[in-house]
Amino acid sequence: xxxxxEAQARQAGPRPANDHDGTGPEPPQDPDAYPGRDVRQGxxxxxxxLRRRLFFGGLIAIPVFVIVIAAISIATS
Length: 77
Prior knowledge:
Blueprint: H1 2-12, H2 49-76
C-alpha cells in the first residue's frame, strides 16, 4: 500500500508551496477582506405604507397561492 501511495505522489508532481499543510508559507492576506460581522446582510427597510403593504402582501400571497394550487389539484384528481 505504501509503495502505491508513493508512486501516486511521484506521478502527481511537486506540491504547491502554499498547500496549507503547514510546510509552505502562509497565503497573503487580502487587503479588501472584511470580517464576518461587518458583512452581514442588511435589514429590510420599508419606508412607505405602500411598500409595507406590498411586502407583507407578497409574504401572505405565497402560502395562500400554494394552498389554492394544492386544493385545486386535490379537487381535480
